[in-house]
Structures are given as C-alpha cells and as structure tokens.
Amino acid sequence: METKLHTPVTIMEKCIVTGGAGFIGSNLVERLLNENMHVTAVDNDPKRKPFISEFTKNKMFKFLLKDVNDLKVSNIDDDINIVYHLAASADIKKSLGDVKIDLENNVVGTHSVLEIMRQKDIDKMIFSSSSAVYGETKVIPTPENLGDIKPISLYGASKLAAEYFIIAYCHLYGMKAWIFRFANVVGKNEHRGVIFDFAKKLEKNPNELEILGDGNQEKSFFDVSDCISGLIEIPRMDPNKLVEIYNLGNLETMKVTKLAEIVCDELKLKPRFRYTGGDRGWKGDVPITILSIDKALKVGWKPKYDCDKSIRRTVRYLIGK
Questions:
Q1: pTM strictly above 0.90
Q2: Beta strand 254-255 with 218-219: parallel, antiparallel or unpaired?
Q3: Which of the 8 DSSP states describes residue 169?
Q4: Burial zone of 194 (CB within 10 Å; 0-12 exposed, 13-18 middle, 19+ buried)
Q5: Of 249, 254, 258, 263, which is least packed with CB atoms within 10 Å of its CB?
Q6: Which positions are catalytic?
C-alpha cells in the first residue's frame, strides 16, 4: 500500500468513536458534534446509552451497539477518515480476577480496529492510552520518551502493547496516529474512579469514609473537558509526524487524602477517615504518578482546570448541581 500524504485533522470530517457511550467517549462525541463532525459511536454496553441519548436525534450522529472485536467492514461507512479509539477495559482491580479481559478488549480489540482501518483505507487514529504504561518510575515528572518502561498492571501492559501495534501499523500501512497517555480523568458522566467511589461511600455512611491505602498516593486529576480538548486540538496543532505520543494531565498533583477532604467539603460533610493501610489501594496501583506535560504545552495546549477545580466540578456533577 502506498504511503499517503496526511492532512491535518479538521472539522467537517467523518469519524468513529469507539467506546463512544462511555465516560470520556460520550464527552468526546458531544464536542465533535458541536464542531459539526459526522460521528459514528461504537459501544458494547447498553447500560451506557443514557450518556448519548441526547444525540440520537442529531442527523450527524450514528450509534452501533457492538463490541470492537465484532466490528465488520460492512458496518463502517466508506467515507470515514479518522478513528478515535477509546474502547477499552480500564478496571485494574477487575483484571486481577479476570486475567484475559485486558488482553481481549485492549490488545485484540485495538488490533481489530486497526484491521478495519486498513481494510477501509482510514488513515488517522487518535488513541487513548494511559499513564499506567510507565509503571513505577524514579523519573518524576515522567516524560513521554522515558527509556525504561515497565508497567506493573495487566491494564498498563495491555495499553503499551496496543501502542506498539498502532506504531507498527502506521509504519506498514500508511496510517498516522496520535497516542495520548492520560492521568486520572474526572468529570461529567464519570461512573467509577476514586471520586465516584468516595461519593457513593459517603451516601451510605456520611460519618466515615474508607480510604484505600494510606492516603499518600499522589496523582494528577484532570477534567474530562481538558482531556477532550487535548484529543481534538493537539492533532491539529501537530499534524506532521507519523506517530506522536503525548502525556495529558494538569500542572499539579494531589494526594488522595486531600482529594477526600475536597469531596467532603463539597458535600458539606466531616466524616472520620479510615485507612486500609499500605502504600497503594490495590495490586497494580502506582502510588505516585506525576506526568510531564511539557510536550503538550509546547505545541499550544493547556489545561483549563487545576486538580482542585476538576475534583469540585466532578462532585457537583455527581450530586446534580
């Protein structure tokens, strides 16, 4: 296959969003439709359809209730020119018991999407990877070009394997990809994660909050709207290389105990904190994740919300304010 001349990602293109009814995917679909793009959302979980129900009357929107591993060439319109590949299993704790779920959904699923792209001659992919690929590293803040990457979870390993498949396909079949390694994304349509878990625990017992680990785990928590702006805007700002990898997060980090205090403040509660102990919440959890986002900043992207505002906005969403 001949290598193509790539053009920047622009509005009015027709795209696929895998995982399009999920947390990040539904927010991405909303933004793309607002930019007048034709969007085909693919998702295998009917429980998440409420996140995209408001789009079903939009003539620019199409929904396929399918697993990416079951997608066929005949399911995809001929004039699609970009894939936002977000579909994945992302529950590190769940994969401890179901050891094939990340392999089947994240690695085989990514390969299935790449094969659809190859057969349909779709030449651009935006991929949602994760900071979990880095594992525990002494290089803090962690840059994208870290030389010794050793994920410590099956999820992190699956995301790294998916990245390598994408890179290989780009070199072999004339595709172009932007790979984004996320910090902890929070916000509208969140249905799991630490803020969601804290809110649910406090709903059941407002007098006590269980915190997994020792509360000193330190990470970046950034708003889903900033995540979406990175996915859409950075490829437009940096359209030329065959494959580009970017970290996405915000400019500071926060310890889990501080996050719990902010959640309680928003809920106007003062529970006692009960820690389960240890330096991490579960096996495979990386206690400290501090990403360097210098590369994204240099091309002109910048997060709008800091950790504090991102967390508060999420709590207000969860309680319907």
A1: yes
A2: antiparallel
A3: H
A4: buried
A5: 258
A6: 155
